[in-house]
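#onboarding

Welcome to the new folks! Below is a worked example of what a typical request in this channel looks like: someone posts a single protein sequence, and someone else replies with the predicted structure as tokens. Don't worry about understanding the tokens yet, we'll cover that in week two.

Example request:
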Amino acid sequence: MKGSIDDVSSEGSSTGGRLFWASFLTLIAAGIGFSVRSAILVDWSAQFGFTQGELGGITGGGLVGFGLTIIFFSFFADLVGYGRLMTIAFLLHVASVVVTLAAAPIYASLGKDATYQCLYWGALLFSLANGTCEAVINPLTATLYPKNKTHWLNILHAGWPGGLILGALLGLVFKWRNVSWETQIASYLLPTLAYGGLMLGQRFPHSEAKAAGVPLATMLKEVGLLGAGVIVALLGLWLHDLLPGLGIPGLVGPVIAIVLLVVFGMFTQFAIGHWMLAMLLVIHGLVGYVELGTDSWIANITGTILENPQYGLMLFIWTSGLMFALRFFAGPIVHHISPLGLLLASAILGAVGLTLLGRSDGAIMVIVAATIYGFGKTFLWPTMLGVVSERFPKGGAMTLGAVGGMGMLSAGILGGPGIGYKQDYFASSTLKESSTEAYSRYQASSERAFLFFPAVKGLDGAKVANLLPDGGQPGDPLKNDIAALVKSGRKLEDVKELAALKEWWDKEGAPNVEKDKGPVKAARLAGGKMALQWTALVPALMAIGYLILVVYFRSQGGYTAQVLTAHKAEDEKFSGGVEGPVE
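Example response:
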């Protein structure tokens, strides 16, 4: 049947199909892990006392490494071999679980700051694993299906929402059964073992560009100084914020970025690169912000709007289900309106959906708005990969890795932390105006800034969780934590943060419950809704960028895919030879 899973370039056996579905499972694992982490943010906030901004920082760690690894391994994917990279990814997925599970004992012995670092690095290892997979599976799919890239990349990336759905459904079951967050976080090991088993012993193709005899230097020139400049600018911004925490001046970050750009230029003889690829990199950075950054928070925010975290999770399942189903039909849609037309329509729907979601109150309007947003975000990521692969095939794994890495870096550096910051900013501002006394009681102990925006003291997650518990009475989370501590044979004094929280609750929290409950609840709701409204500006900017590209291609006679002709090894498997099996 035309377009069947085994229609793999010139390869006639089922090997290509097995590799494709193993690649699909890597995104299932990534989606489950992402979904589960998003669902248990409320548990971490209540147990460890994190603010929304701090939770956004942890969420960002689960995305930044993703982008770094895609870019790094895209340089060496064909040299190292796809099989070896997948072995590295498997080991990183396992290590991320081990590190994250250490959070509770570290909190008991070393406190909140050490726990933050533990969860951050656990999320970072998870993102490194996902990035390593992504460095392989995108060029692999483009090689397996060279004549229908956009369609098959969309099917491949249906694995992501598929994982989100499974993770969310598991979250509902786990919540119903009162399963610990530790068990929930370990659940993505199941698809990890599955993709490892499918890939074990298989022979992998080289990328389309290497199969055609395109040297690495030419691949790098496709990116050029313009494209590399976009990426290192974002890396410099990340290092500027990261290095002070390690005792290194923040200005070292931009210096490192400039050095990286110069070194890249030396390798490429300072080739400028194509303006369009640089533009696509910028736009895909916005895609990462609006899709993954928003998805990090969407269940949390809609759960607040609907006054039930479980409703927010079910709405997240609904929008992910839309994405999963629709991505299987990208091919026919693209044949009618072109990839750029699909991207333009998607960006407009995303902007409208987020704006409406940030202004909705009733359940019906929230569902309608979330559905529009779900339609909008569905085709953005994989269709962008398809466009880059079709227009810049000489870039091979390098250009695909650069675009995917840019999206993930933006989501981790800007999206997750930025949306968390906006919630803190608007929630604290609202509470200050409605009740200065309530804000003084529920503000976090430290300020948190974002980029060039002013530092703010958000609302302390542990304190808010005691005032507004999920389905319980004020103070229940604290009682439950103390009961669990006593049951383990330890004393309250052994955990200083928990002891301090109890002292605060007894003296300030409990006596003012009725006075504080309304203003704090309204402030938290305002923070989430305003964050969504401001985030809607991002897909609006994307729409402008896509419109410019649509107009440009119409002036050039229309959008067409560039075909890369192989110059050697045409008679080998996968139209370009194979590497050895996974060792």
